[in-house]
Amino acid sequence: MSQTEVSGMKATLVPLATLIGRELRSEKVEKPYLKYGQAAVAKKGEDCFLIKTDCQRTHSNPSTSFSVFAIFDGHNGISAAIFAKENLLANVLSAIPQGISRDEWLHALPRALVAGFVKTDIEFQQKGETSGTTVTFVVIDGWTVTVASVGDSRCILDTQGGVVSLLTVDHRLEENEEERARVTASGGEVGRLNVFGGSEVGPLRCWPGGLCLSRSIGDTDVGEFIVPIPHVKQVKLSNAGGRLIIASDGIWDALSSDLAAKSCRGLPAELAAKLVVKEALRSRGLKDDTTCLVVDIIPSDHPVLPPTPMKKQNILASLIFGKKTRNSVNKRNKLSSVGVVEELFEEGSAMLAERLGKDSTLDANSGLFRCAVCQVDQPPVEGLSVNSGPFFSPASKPWEGLFLCAKCRNKKDAMEGRRLSTPTVILW
């Protein structure tokens, strides 16, 4: 999808003939094959996979198929990881309008991922359980790959040009200065664990709670400045294809992105996943759940992913394609060589108003507003616009823009430090 097409989607009215033409052109493009493999060695048994290759944008229409691959790395128990695995996809899809074209669906997906993550977090916290989970959630529709992530699991892309690109951002307080500043501005404190005698040990953590991550789903017992709002990146591969490696931190604490990619090149996906896990255990031992998914996106005329031309790596790596259509985070990991990957979208802000946009959600027929997060229709007296301030004033327009019900508005205020929770202290 070109930058012009992405910008053009903001128009309120699109002729029907144009929409039909887009869909027909999309159907003429050969979809790639997907081959995948998974491997895991458990220490605490808190990691979960989600593999779903039969999703459809339009019900009972196989030509609108897409696939989802995800890893949930739980902590303080496995319940948050299981809940996210069972509910996140449905919550994301409920936030995408029905009856739209493929291009419009892909354009709506990043915002729907934000709404789905936040809704899943709210629903889990209502259960009163204290576990949490990282999430790396990958949607593959044809040659377009969209990745949403919270926490320190990771997804990398190894293209046929030999360039390894990071499609996620780590939300560890130790490595992420922006997240440390956000947490403290929202009412949390960042520091190491104090032991007897006043010495500080271990990684940077958020207090109260002692979590070393700044974003997750769950963690009811930690301050709500630990947010479920994901970093989202969307890219389009060329028809040369590529390989995704999605893994929990048990892999990435042992292997760099480059080493993980190189360790399994030329192998089929199922064997590649096992080899990545084996290499991580050989390097570091079993100190955490070690979980890996490998997904090959393969041209339809190739039975396997073509081998990477190793000798050209250094040349291609210097040809960085820095195209952006929205605000970018983590500029250290710009994508890849010319003609291999086109970057369509990247955003990592933790401010809900910035991530959900300003489009009106009023139903003119019923007079009801639909909450942009939980997708429930309610009268305007029961909520506020995501863009309105905390109080009414004669000059304010509290229902202008996307609507949030009272529950979701409360969540937004808590994440931004306007309403602080009082968690108990549990270390992870």
* Helix content estimate: 25-40%
Portion in beta strands:
25-35%
Largest sheet: 7 strands, antiparallel
Radius of gyration: 22 Å
The overall number of domains is 3
Unreliable stretches = 1-14, 311-334, 389-396, 420-428
Q: Count all strands and give the number.
A: 18
Structural class comes to alpha+beta
Give the CATH H-level superfamily of the largest domain: PPM-type phosphatase domain
Sequence of secondary-structure elements:
HHEEEHHEEEEHEEEEEHHHEHEHEEEEH
**How confident overall, as mean pLDDT?**
82
CA-based shape: globular
Please name the CATH architecture of the largest domain.
4-Layer Sandwich
Q: N- to C-terminal separation? A: 41 Å
Protein name: protein-serine/threonine phosphatase
Organism: Prunus persica
Family: Belongs to the PP2C family.
Catalytic activity: O-phospho-L-seryl-[protein] + H2O = L-seryl-[protein] + phosphate; O-phospho-L-threonyl-[protein] + H2O = L-threonyl-[protein] + phosphate
Task: Report on the architecture of this protein.
The protein is of the alpha+beta class and 428 residues long. The protein has three domains: 270 residues, PPM-type phosphatase domain (Phosphatase 2c, domain 1, 4-Layer Sandwich), CATH 3.60.40.10; 36 residues, no CATH class; 59 residues, no CATH class. This is protein-serine/threonine phosphatase. Its cofactor is Mn(2+); Mg(2+). One of its GO terms (molecular function) is protein serine/threonine phosphatase activity.
